[in-house]
Amino acid sequence: MTVRPSRLVAPALAAVLAPALLAGCVGGTGGDPTSTVTVTETPDPLGPAQQELTGSELTDALPNVKEVPTNFVADPGGRDPEEESTRTADPASCLAVELDTPQMRTFRREHMTAADQRRYSATSGVSGVGLLTVEMWTHDEPYPRAHLDEAGAAVGECATYTVTSNGTETGPWEAKTTPIPLLGDQSLGVRVGDRRHDIAVDHLWVSSGHNLLHVSMVTGYREDNEDLLERAAEGVLDRLER
Fold first, then answer.
1. Helical (H) or strand (E) element with 239
2. What share of the chain is helix, strand, coil (3-state, %, to 5)?
3. Strand pairing partners for 114?
4. Which residues contact 207 (CB under 8 A, 6 or more apart)?
5. Distances (CA, A) of 207 to 46, 63, 143, 236
6. What is the DSSP letter of 33?
């Protein structure tokens, strides 16, 4: 039986793995490496959910506490989504799994015009569940399709990798795709975690025109969070379409 980590493990892992906490394919539970990213043609002209957003439009699209499961409460913590990551990984290509390569950071720095996030913590008594974060960035040009393509391709190279943040190396971590529906223009589901300690971060990335949406969950490795992440992402996209 896998031994669960102490209460301190999930926050520590979140600080390393979940971009929302630091800096986020239809198939089986292990994902399908041959169809990692789902893609559709972007309508022209861009729809409401694909246009560059104002700061207030972006913030209003994020879920409030009434729209998350009843066992979650608002959590004011988490990093500023406009903060640029300085993490490294070995192999370096595994930074792409969380859309955090130097090239991806450069695009965000040069083209991001607004960003915001919401974070919620599970109340006590919910086994294997920790933090739910929804964050979004809007840009002055469409988010590059190549970035999610690269992220999907990188998952296959990252069955074992380490991450160094603020001088501290952690891992080894394992990345694998998770089953998700088609959302936005491109969507990618990834689980990054450690089976030995029954801890993971589930990521759902959705690009929609000028916008990048990321939903993440710090969780037990054996938990299944796809439905929760999907509902959170769909709620954001639905509000933008209104």
1. helix 226-241
2. 30, 30, 40
3. 138
4. 143, 145, 147, 148, 184, 185, 186, 187, 213
5. 13, 17, 7, 12
6. G
CA angle 192–196–197, rounded 5-degree value: 80
- Tell me how far apart the alpha carbons of residues 112 and 115 are, in angstroms, rounded to a whole number: 8
The per-residue pLDDT for 22 is 33
Q: Where are the alpha helices (DSSP H) in 8-66?
A: 9-17, 55-61
Report d(CA 43, CA 231) in Å as an integer.
Answer: 23
Across the 242 residues of the chain, what is the mean pLDDT of every consecutive 10-residue run? Answer: 36 43 36 47 72 96 89 85 92 96 96 96 68 96 97 94 92 93 94 92 96 94 89 95 87
Model's pTM, two decimal places?
0.80
- Helix 102-111 crosses helix 145-155 at what angle (to 10 degrees)? 150
Q: Is the bond leading into 45 cis (omega within 30 degrees of zero)?
A: yes
Give 111-153 as a DSSP string: HEEEEEEEEEEEPTT-TTEEEEEEEEEEESSPPPHHHHHHHHH
The residue with tokens 């070995």 is 90
**Taking the CA atoms of the chain, what radius of gyration do you get in angstroms?**
16
Residue with tokens 């190396």: 169
Q: Which pLDDT does position 19 carry in this prediction?
A: 42
Q: Phi, psi (5° rounding) for residue 47? A: -80, 175
